[in-house]
Amino acid sequence: xxxxxxxxxxxxxxxxxxxxxxxxxxxxxxxxxxxxxxxxxxxxxxxxxxxxxxxxxxxxxxxxxxxxxxxxxxxxxxxxxxxxxxxxxxxxxxxxxxxxxxxxxxxxxxxxxxxxxxxxxxxxxxxxxxxxxxxxxxxxxxxxxxxxxxxxxxxxxxxxxxxxxxxxxxxxxxxxxxxxxxxxxxxxxxxxxxxxxxxxxxxxxxxxxxxxxxxxxxxxxxxxxxxxxxxxxxxxxxxxxxxxxxxxxxxxxxxxxxxxxxxxxxxxxxxxxxxxxxxxxxxxxxxxxxxxxxxxxxxxxxxxxxxxxxxxxxxxxxxxxxxxxxxxxxxxxxxxxxxxxxxxxxxxxxxxxxxxxxxxxxxxxxxxxxxxxxxxxxxxxxxxxxxxxxxxxxxxxxxxxxxxxxxxxxxxxxxxxxxxxxxxxxxxxxxxxx
Length: 434
Ligand SMILES: Nc1ncnc2c1ncn2[C@@H]1O[C@H](COP(=O)(O)OP(=O)(O)OP(=O)(O)O)[C@@H](O)[C@H]1O
Ligand SMILES: [Mg+2]
What we know:
It is a single chain. The radius of gyration is 25 Å and the shape is globular. The model has no long low-confidence stretch (mean pLDDT 94). The protein is of the alpha/beta class. It has 21 helices and eight strands. The strands form two sheets. It has a five-stranded parallel beta sheet with strand order 2-3-4-1-5, sandwiched between helices. The structure holds adenosine-5'-triphosphate and magnesium ion.
């Protein structure tokens, strides 16, 4: 069978198969090219392409094309997902120094890195001495530290470690490029670490969704030479379902490509790729949802309900309308857009994927696993409805009967604080057929 040009499990390692992210790449390299040799912190939700970006940045052909000499600028990738609770700063440096020694071509420096990596304890002085030699020889080291939150969250890495690392990054030819799911400062094991000046050496670079142009380019270039063409209707459907999200777009395209290769007719293709996509996407939706706080869950639900109600054809909703329905919409929107869960356009927003919207409603209304009947729950939770007027109380109770028990408090908290409770109740009733 013909090789599928769309892949969605492992990070992209071939630069020819890496798309978009031009602005982010330029920003990172321009900070490395300037005299200060500056660090960057890449922040992106799960599966937004952090590791793929790191593989791309550290590819010799890319480094060269960016005007840096790969023999002088040593890019070292390390996956910190493997870091355990027992990993100490010394162990961290031993590993990196060994990697440096393997990577550099200059024999003298190779031996020095190997020797430094053998030391029983590695402190900032040892490292400063080592990077002084790196400097004398005209080398530069760039550490690409993937999933760096594993370091900031580990109590084994105290404030001293970060102070030392900061000083090396400022005064020696060492630059850091970290990746994390959220901003590092929010992912620290203690206040002492999060208040460290370490974090101000970085420029934050957010990996969001692709632009529509980047997504189109990914499809067109990947299909080149395969003999397969997606119809304009299929492209539109792909974007509705995957919303310019790198991972979901690759997954959706993967199944649509497979349907074409199988020789299925248009309607069968549609059924095939959508079903496969939904199965693949569901665990990831669960993870995004599970990592959302209550405010984010409420706003995601509001958008899913609005979409279900089918109010607009372009599925976008304005900030004012959202604020009416949930009073904290404006602040919540910013975080969700950064996480790539929403698409924004001129102050109007929609969920990144129609399938995600449908999943949210199924999740919220799933009562199958409930241990108590709704009536028993209501009898034991009557007081939680006291805050509503008597008219609203019966409407809220009716709505709650359609909501899974684990989400009833969430809905109560939402409805207890709206700008316009009638609008919020009206939306829930219309979308849930209450
Ligand atoms: N720039 C890109 N071009 C093409 N495909 C991409 C790109 N970035 C990400 N992808 C797609 O998204 C998938 C996930 O990418 P990747 O593993 O790099 O994300 P990640 O942010 O490191 O994920 P995790 O948080 O799970 O570590 C890849 O397998 C690929 O299908
Ligand atoms: Mg990764």
